[in-house]
Amino acid sequence: MTPEAHQPPTTASGGPGGPDEGQTHDLLLAEPDEALAAQALAGFEDAGIHTLVCHDGAEALLQVGARRPRAVLLGAPLPIVDAARVTELIARLHPVPVLVGAGAEGAEEATAAVAAGAIAFVARPYRIEEITPLLRSGRHEGDGSAVPLRVGDIELDPAGFHVYVRGRSLQLPVREFLLLRYFMERPNKLITRRELTQALWGTDTPESNTLTVHVRRVRTKLKEEGESCCTIDAIRGMGYRLECGSSCAKPAGSASSTARAPKATGA
What we know:
Layout: E1 10-11, E2 27-30, H1 34-46, E3 51-54, H2 57-67, E4 72-76, H3 83-93, E5 98-102, H4 107-116, E6 120-123, H5 128-136, E7 149-151, E8 154-157, E9 162-165, E10 168-170, H6 174-184, E11 191-192, H7 193-201, H8 210-225, E12 230-235, E13 239-244
Parallel strand pairs: 2-3, 2-4, 4-5, 5-6
Antiparallel strand pairs: 1-3, 7-8, 8-9, 9-10, 11-13, 12-13
Helix pairs in contact: 2-3, 3-4, 6-8
């Protein structure tokens, strides 16, 4: 492989070697389609995600080592070094969260990348509104964002993108996974609708019933697929609260063993 095989990466400042070269990027996007990369770059920058772009897997590995971005998004199929191998090497050499995006033509490679450790498989062309909450969710509490969570009989592994209830695996799309994670980080606490929509959609005013629909889906999967003893209760006019009854298994020292506020009725 020769240096001529690579185009210099495009930065948010508008070109290679720009004034932001020494800054930490929120995201490294490795996208082989230059038009699609430019479109995604504009969307991420508008959402406040400082982004660096390159166009193949070898360059992605070089830039992860040199720039140390907070997260990586790989477009599949990825030239030179495929998405699964890039994911594997990032996990070994410079661990950061990796997402992989693909349409039908890259689905097999993306699936292999998830098996290698990518935390999520997202649509390509990219839906910026779907990806930005996943990136923002890793911005708090330092590296603790990857610590597994246990509340009642629910286990959630942010690093592996897995959810288990009583040992049963639940398959949740990205947004539902993030919603459940947000609740599990705040068990037994009232969370307002405004807080949830700001955290997960980056806005105070998503479509009118979007949050309601997502909460209903998570609640239904916990109850019907997982047979969980935990519920997501609606507190009328206020928001939601993740509640786990006394019959739920509580690991020793779990934060969920603390006293709960009286349960309110709601829709």
